[in-house]
Design goal:
By secondary structure, the chain is mostly helical. It contains three helices and no strands.
Amino acid sequence: MEEKTTQEIATIFKNAGDSVTVINTDTTKGVNETDAEWKDRIRRNVEHLETIKTYKKLDKTTSIWTTESFTDIDKAIVDGKKVYGG
């Protein structure tokens, strides 16, 4: 196993932004979605964000993150948890 490349880290961070967008824009359930399904979708995106924040280098101590801003991610986690009561 090798360390993640700068490009891989950038892709992970971009994908985190996709989860932020889901949490911030999908503020009500979809037409063909139950309330439980909508809350579960938001929960999965929150869990994704929480997980990527913990990513470490191979030494299992040093974060892969350097200068990335987690302000939007942190806000989405808090807002998302309000949806499903997390």
